[in-house]
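Blinded run. Sample ID left blank on purpose so nobody reads anything into the name before looking at the predicted structure. Input follows.
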Amino acid sequence: MDLGGIAYADGMSESVFDLLVIGAGPTGLACAIEAKKAGFRVVLVEKGCLCNSLFHYPANMVFFTTPELLEIGGIPFPSPNQKPTRNEALQYYRQVAAHYGLDVRQYHRVIGVTGGDGDFRVGTEDRFGRGGELQARKLAVATGYYDLPNYLEIPGEKLSKVHHYYDDPHPYAGMDVVVIGGKNSAAIAALELWRHGARVTLVHRDSEMHRHVKYWIKPDIENRIKNGEVTAYFNSRVVKIGLDTVILETPAGEVELKNDFVFALTGYHPDFGFLAGLGVKAEGPDRLPVCDAETLESNVPGIYLAGVIVAGARTNEIFIENGRFHGEQIARDLRRKLKLVGVESGE
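Blinded prediction complete.
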């Protein structure tokens, strides 16, 4: 990464990054882009591949939003579709990262952070267990939440037939499948599985599908249930998963169902333990991280938060559409707090 001969006013080594971004999803990329555009030296550390969470979304997933609301770095998102697909988004973010020449350390997990504001030391480990260390003056945490499912904590949940992520319907054709949940992911999985030949039972703890299910999906799943094409148990929950059955607790009493596979699509949550390990405090029942609303700097000087983790457990408040602007807020604060001498060539 050639930054055109920028010199550091404090004489720090050029091997020190101005900003290290933990997480290389769309929000993390946006943070790195805005900081780099402001003239700072940036590196991203990602435990998986670029946009790892998006990569693990269902293969046929279609976004609920339009292409322009997914754009970062001022780069247009060209798509012939009103709602772009997962594969289109992955291609777009790859191209944006390449356009800006971002330094992304893929398949490196952050295992510890020492030091403090102005001199953070970030310990990393690659997929072969080899350790490393990066030095940065500021950190931005943009780790998302998709990697940590909300577990049911019931007997049988660890059986290999139980999945907390839905990918493709093909392997489940002709099988008895239970889908647990009542939001978008559960509705989409139930519909796709049914349309590809699975015998689907939907189990939801509330009296109906969640009100936030998208307007074009909600009537579809409700009609499938009404027509008996998808069996539904509302005000119910799975209490035990066996090798060939599941046990439900329903208003009519206990029900045992023949079963081959279970998709427990009950949501996900940020890595609160990782944030706590950094010293970031959380408040209230939703575990909202302490964070300045304007700068996004946490209670730990020099550590910024970006993306869905800003909302704690309220993961339905921040998406790519609004989290992508967090990079601009952080870059503005970096301009105020980090002193650089000289300007980037070509700017």
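Unblinding after everyone has recorded impressions. The domain at 162-264 is CATH 3.50.50.60 (FAD/NAD(P)-binding domain).
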